[in-house]
Amino acid sequence: MAEESNRKKEVAHSLKSEMPAKEVKDGVEISNPLEIVQRLIEVAVNDLDLPEGTFEILKKPKRIMKVSIPVRMDDGTYREFEGFRSQHIDVLGPTKGGVRFHPKVTEDEVAALSMWMSLKSAILGIPYGGGKGGIVVNPKELSERELEELSRGFIRELEPIMGPEKDIPAPDVNTTPEIMGWMIDEFSRLKGKNVPGTVTGKPIILGGSEGRVEATGRGVVFTIAEAAERLGLQLEGMTAVVQGFGNVGSVTAQLLAERGVKVVGITDAGGGVYHGDGLDVEDLLRYVKEKGTVSGYRDFDGFSNDELFSADCDILVPAALENQITAETGPKIKAKIVAEAANGPTTPDGNAAMEQNGVFVIPDILCNAGGVTVSYFEWVQNTTHLAWTEQEVNERLHTEMTQAFEDVFRMKEQKNVSMREAAYLVGVERIADAMKARGWIK
Ligand code: NAD
Asked: Alpha-carbon distance 372 to 170, whole Å?
């Protein structure tokens, strides 16, 4: 007993003290997501006493493809865009994960994101490994024709390593069902046949699933409801702030409002809005469709990210990019529940501050797994040639997300660790079970 408790202390100690050193640029803390995910996996491998070699296999992707995509621009010139696709591990099934278009995408970021995808799928019990892709581009600077050419060019480069049983892309930051439509068309043309199971998040007419667009935000809200229940809190009447009003942030805000949560503050890349009585999320969505940002909405303007992280509220949802909850913002958080809708929104220092202040954190690899879950449902529908109703998709999503939450929560109670550590333990244990069953580790 005493030995076990010492071991737990050691693990907890190693989690905090062995976190990679942060880098500070222009006064802003930047953490390398690849180093963070590696360290967290290593701690879980040690805690689970897994056989030698487990961490060696898990610590980096089995394949990262780096490509250069030439695009003829509208003015007749040519530009080369750099892209990556990372495939972490295929021990549970084909690799799966989104493609992001962002000017700051890096190889390490894409690698880390693919590793988080492996853990997410394992936690949800989905037969996939982790994949992720990215193109270094600001899509807002491209015309629609240029964007289509870029998306198709990316698929031409990736074709040898893609397929419904190999690697399956999906939407992520700045990529949409329309882009998935171009991608599946390009892949099907190259193969000379329709292969809908190769890309998920497609338009419904091309075999996309009902409920996929809303799936990540819907899953986030399912986990928030579970957390509130465990904390003995009632969702109705609670207040929330959301960073990011894209696919995930906007759906999360909408569904929270539907459940009677007052969404008081929202920020996006263009600015932020705050209204203490609760924003009209539907009306704000209509505004954003027209203006492209929440900024300038009524007279609620002028809400910054700094104010968002220190806001007096019950629920905080980071739904934008990495490295947002940091040594600076973490200690200011007053929310009882932080739901990590984005991937990797929290740095080690930010995490330590939240732990110290007793914030209930729903870690990203659990919180935002609704997207990959409904992507899996889409793939199942494509491979069985069936189409499920939206109600069926949402009910199945609810079952899967609440089960995953329960599995992680039980691990947290059993091992007396944080929700984040518990999520890594559940994910790593399942991946290691498959590695053992295949004879990769003894
Ligand atoms: P998106 O491109 O639809 O939206 C991103 C939002 O973040 C936009 O509203 C943008 O304005 C905002 N944003 C960017 N920089 C910001 C800043 N500095 N401050 C405040 N807001 C800022 O992307 P998305 O698909 O909603 O993805 C958001 C996050 O969720 C990402 O971390 C992504 O990896 C993660 N995620 C997405 C899915 C999915 O199915 N789309 C699934 C799992 C996880």
From this structure: 9
Domain with residues 2-194, CATH architecture: 3-Layer(aba) Sandwich (3.40)
| Residue 327: both structure tokens together | 């040594």
Q: Which residues are catalytic, by number?
A: 132
Closest Cα to atom 28 of ligand 1: 320
Q: Tens of pLDDT along 307-344?
A: 999 999 999 999 998 899 999 999 999 999 999 999 99
Ligand 1: lining residues by beta carbon, under 6 Å: 171-174, 216, 243-249, 267-269, 305, 319-321, 341-343, 368, 371
Enter the pTM of the model.
0.93
How far from 159 is each of 12, 145, 184, 203, 237, CA to CA, in Å?
43, 21, 11, 21, 49
CATH 3.40.50.720 domain span(s) along the chain: 215-358
What angle, 0 to 180 degrees and rounded to 10, lies between the N-to-C axes of helices 390-415 and 212-230? 40
Question: Is residue 14 predicted with pLDDT exceeding 70?
Answer: no
Q: What is the CATH number of domain 215-358?
A: 3.40.50.720
Mind listing the pLDDT tens digit for each residue in 22-42? 555 555 555 789 999 999 999
Measured on CA atoms in the order 201, 242, 108, 441, is the torsion positive or negative?
A: negative
Work out the angle at residue 343's Cα, subtended by the Cα atoms of residues 309 and 8, and round it to the nearest 5 degrees: 85
- Triad 378, 245, 345: Cα angle to 5°: 85
Residues of the chain within CATH 3.40.50.10860 domain(s) are 2-194
What's the pLDDT at 24? 53
Pocket mutation for ligand 1, best pick of 100, 110, 245, 247 (most atoms within 8 Å of C-beta)? 247
